[in-house]
Amino acid sequence: MNNEPAFPVPSYVNADGETHDVSLQGMTLRDYFAAKAMQGDWADGAVDLNGYSVKAEEYYLMADAMMKARGA
Predict the structure, then answer these.
(1) Which of 5, 6, 8, 64 could form an SS bridge with 32, CB 3.0 to 4.6 Å?
(2) Would the pTM of this model clear 0.85, i.e. be above it?
């Protein structure tokens, strides 16, 4: 599974012609998908305060399915 950055920042060339690679890419696409699944679930009022760890696993399973569906 290709778990690239959710919001990649490309390399750039400065005024002196030096190429710079940006190493801080932020969250991964898988994390972003999981967060979106969580956000949708919580917006719907489907929050179980006793089942956070189970729900977190479900969000990542949803994220994995989204990654697979996009061919990553």
Answers:
(1) 6
(2) no
